[in-house]
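ingest -> fold -> write
write: protein_1
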Amino acid sequence: MVTDSSWFSRKQTKQVHDYVRRKTSRRLELYMLKCLFSAILLYRVCRCCRRIYVKLFHTIFHALAIPCIVVGFIAVLDSHNLNAAGAIPNFYSLHSWMGLVTMGLFAIQVLKVACTGNH
């Protein structure tokens, strides 16, 4: 049986995993934005359909964004903590804090709609 260590050194394997994590987090950010923008546009543009169907698809697109947010957040934290060159501090830039604030505001919005049932 051939093990991974015979094909790659541990350092090369870690570099491959870091590369995959970075690409995964970027791709999930784009999917999240696509889902959120599609939900917003669908709610405003599709006036030809019945309102209940528009609201249903609007909710589905927002719900599809939630797993992208969670998995992307975990991938970013893993890529910082498991970096080959040493751990990168989490939330060291304004971009990181803006992402955290955005996720928090989205969570508050979801909780508000879940509790009250209104927009």
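write: protein_2
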Amino acid sequence: MARRLIDISVPLQAGIASDPPYMLPQIAYDDHHVTAPRMAEYMGVRVDQFPDGEFAAVERCEISTHNGTRSAAATAAPRKVGRKPLANNLDCLITPGLMAIS
């Protein structure tokens, strides 16, 4: 029987309703203008020495092991269920009636 894999992955982003409020990912987005003064100071140069006075945009993330799409469900199971490491082969995670990718 041919298998059909449906990608249900969701990228991490601020404000997503993916987890309980205390576990939500926190992502701060610093644009090219915000990072320029910080990097100029660090590098000992002037901001106007960067092309267009800009530097790299940066995303600073605070995440937990349960944010986003992952395949660690079996290793994160409660102790009474047991923790058995998953193999690196995704075929072991997908069987008829079971999709263990979370």
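write: annotation protein_2
The chain has two domains: 13-67, 69-102.
DSSP finds one helix and four strands in the chain.
pipeline exit 0
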